Write the structure tokens for this entry.
Amino acid sequence: MTTVAYDFDVIAWAQEQAALLRSGQFSLLDIEHIAEEIEDVGKSEQRELLSRMVVLLAHLLKWQYQAERRSNSWRLTIIGQRKEVAYALKEMPSLKAKFRDPEWVDLLWAKAIAHAASETGLSVFPETCPWSFQQMMDIDFWPNG
């Protein structure tokens, strides 16, 4: 049995669990909460991928639909997000499966449209994403408006 309650102080609990693991005291581990924390690591990475993709797509939409307002800042944001997404997918290849999940892709697109609409005031964006994943990530792809 652990001495620090998971719900009371998760940091102290985690430190205690790590010490128990290192000392081989497996019978004292809080297995259920450890399993939850491990699952949450994956969820955190998925949320970060979603966030980066939303920013990337919103900026690609702005680039296409507000050609007159294109800026170096937008260009740098697009380049930066492409690099961060590529890095995440290289470090965690299992995240690529998210792009085959229609519900996740729909959520991603809806969030990107909402982000772009809030920044531009426009409501002319397509219902579904017009670009392939390869286009989104291609350093030479810049949608024309």
Notes: The radius of gyration is 21 Å. The chain has a mean pLDDT of 95. Residues 44-137 form one domain.
